[in-house]
Amino acid sequence: MNAAKQAPEAELNDQEWADLLSPARRGVLAAALAAGGLSANALAQQATPSAATPGPAPTPRRRPNGESPWGYETYREATPRPASVRPGEQHLPREPRPYTDIESYHAHIYFDEDTYEKAALLRKWTAERFKVELGNWNHEPRGPHVTPSFYFGFSNDLLPVIVPWLQLNSLGLTILLHPNTDDPRADHLYYTLWVNRSQPVNAYAMKKPGPGEDRVEQIYPNTRPSVKIETGRA
Ligand code: ZN
């Protein structure tokens, strides 16, 4: 039966995802998110509903007498409206954003200690076939990316080939495809395409380029394709 055939693979993928969110890794994620300034909102909701409000200095987590470090009146605290993590997007836009604002794309390929060989293979295949800007390995969280990753940037004209190519050659890896406009935070959080499962991206603190910086992230291809892209039996 098809269902019986597919079951082991599905279980494996679910287990991989469960491993990704294991307590140890959740700790790493929490640290990365906290470092990026997300603590006042998402993280604090788990810790205490009043974390967005200025309060007393942090209390030691352990009390020798077994008392709660938060006291016993937390349920009485007011519920302030948190500051938006989407500044500038509180109002409905009057008209659509021109798609021509997209100047290029990035593909970020995520992996871990169990899937790095798949990432290496996909990286090699990509460099052999596409003229892209291939970044180096990120063995630790880097920028808004909270797991090991690598990326390649590509020009808009490659999009109609790269998207289906990645769909069929992801090897099950999680891949973030984001455009490059003049709004990097939105590029990473709201203008995204994902291949397979999505995962957290800590881009809330990303800002638009300042004076003297490129208005939009630029792509400088550094690969020399040597393999013709496979197109089927013909
Ligand atoms: Zn990127």
Small molecules (ligands, ions, cofactors) in the structure? zinc ion
**Form type:** globular
pLDDT < 50 stretches: 1-30, 32-53
CATH topology of the largest domain: Alpha-Beta Plaits
Short description:
This protein is α+β, with helices and mostly antiparallel strands. It has two domains: 13-76, no CATH class; 101-234, Alpha-Beta Plaits (2-Layer Sandwich). 31% of the residues lie in helices and 10% in strands.
Explain what the structure shows:
- The chain is an alpha+beta fold and 234 residues long.
- 31% of the residues lie in helices and 10% in strands.
- The chain is built from six helices and five strands.
- It has a five-stranded antiparallel sheet with strand order 2-3-1-4-5.
- The N terminus is likely disordered.
- The site of zinc ion has 4 residues, from β1.
Descriptive keywords:
6 helices, globular, alpha+beta, 31% helix, 5 strands, 10% strand, five-stranded antiparallel sheet, binds zinc ion, Alpha-Beta Plaits, 234 residues
